[in-house]
Amino acid sequence: MKKTIIAFASLLILFACNKEEAKTNLHLTGTIKGLKKGTLYIQRVKDTSLVALDTILIDGDSKFESDLNIESPEMLYLFLDRGVSNSLDNNISFFAEAGKINIETNLESYLSSAKITGSKNHDKYEEYRKMNLRFRDENLDIISAKFKALKNNNQKAVDSLNIKQDNNTKRKYLFATNFAVNNKDYEVAPYIALSDIYDINIKYLDTIQKTMSPKVAKSLYGKQLTEFVAKRKKLQ
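Above: the chain sequence. Below: its structure as tokens.
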């Protein structure tokens, strides 16, 4: 009888352990070269605020790892608390999804040196972001030129630059729309729509929403986009 009770108790413990393991579906690893001491926070956006999913203390070893559970692919943030400042340069964004993701960077250029592997959605987002930077850089050049034209009271040049700026914005929005439509099988598609072009003409958001694959439509950002489009339509 005693052996039966022990065996039953062992099975309960094994079941509990397996149940606990099943709660995590994302294994995050990484290295921050040069970091000897600090605190890492893995964060997500909830109700417009960043909340911590996990806290990792770094004390001598620059490597880190964490096991998380995410119900759907989403943008997460790896915030480094250096104990000095809360600069944006201390926050690495990465598009998390179930599986194994690795983040490699260094202390001196924490944000700019970050290399993220293991997430197909993040690869797609990086592809989008690199092209999107071109529109941003062009806009900065136009702003600089407008400042000079205004300083010289050259209204004709200002008007021309305003048109150029509007066209750049239109190209940026159309690129984002096309990218989202062409990548309808990835959760990054509705994320781009919600984060970068939420104020675009509703017909473009409607197109993105309707072209999402069934899997993406059921995701966190897929549901949010569907709700957002519905609300925009009601306001028209």
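The longest helix spans residues 120-151.
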